Automatic annotation (TrEMBL):
Source taxonomy: Eukaryota, Metazoa, Spiralia, Lophotrochozoa, Mollusca
Low complexity bias (residue ranges): 162-171
Name the UniProt record assigns to this protein: Uncharacterized protein
Organism of origin: Elysia marginata
Compositional bias (Basic residues): 46-147, 172-186, 196-215
Superkingdom of origin organism: Eukaryota
Length: 215
């Protein structure tokens, strides 16, 4: 298949060949020269245009090729980076999971130990509470017993003192009564004697007076 470039090339070749043939003709005029020159210039212009177009196309092709290569490399690097990041994230996740598991186990262990410790502490506290309660009960019982004994003793002492006081009072009262009775009897005796003596004296006086009167 003949391309556009080939056709243009054939036309150019035909023109050159035609020009060369015309130059050999004796009646070749100046207008033809001008036309030929113009054609030559057009030809060169087209040639340069085609060359520039070709270079431009080549440049664009290379640019596209480089761009594609760059994109390919960038995508490759991106893929590589993504793969690396994926691996990194996977390892990070794995590490985090492992760390979390470790921390969870540690926390569970600590909680277990804490519970164990608290249980032990509670047991000890209850034991001590029970012990102290028993001790307090014993002390209270002892105290109550002592107080009871003390009260009993005090009561006995009070009773004894009351009895002693009553006995002493009765004794003193009896003694006083006896003394009073004795005193009273003595006074009575004295009064009786006095009265007797008085009577006797009176009688004697009366007798004496009677005797004096008679004599």
């Amino acid at each position: 298949m003949i391309s556009v470039g080939d056709v243009e090339h054939l036309i150019s070749a035909a023109r050159i060949l035609g020009g060369n043939l015309l130059r050999q003709v004796p009646f070749f005029t100046g207008e033809e020269k001008k036309r030929k020159k113009k054609e030559e210039e057009e030809k060169n212009k087209n040639k340069n245009k085609n060359k520039n177009k070709k270079n431009k196309n080549k440049k664009m092709k290379n640019k596209k090729k480089n761009k594609n290569k760059k994109n390919k490399n960038r995508n490759k690097n991106k893929k590589k980076k993504n793969k690396k990041n994926k691996k990194k994230n996977k390892n990070k996740k794995k590490k985090k999971k492992s760390k979390n598991k470790k921390m969870k186990n540690k926390k569970n262990k600590n909680n277990k130990n804490k519970d164990k410790k608290n249980k032990k502490k509670k047991k000890k506290k209850n034991r001590n509470k029970k012990k102290n309660k028993k001790k307090n009960n014993n002390n209270n019982n002892k105290k109550n017993k002592n107080n009871k004994n003390k009260d009993k003793k005090e009561k006995k002492k009070k009773k004894k003192n009351n009895n002693n006081n009553n006995n002493n009072n009765n004794k003193n009262k009896n003694k006083k009564n006896k003394n009073n009775k004795k005193k009273k009897n003595k006074n009575n005796n004295n009064n009786n004697n006095n009265n007797k003596n008085k009577k006797k004296k009176k009688k004697k006086k009366k007798k004496k007076k009677k005797k004096k009167k008679t004599g």
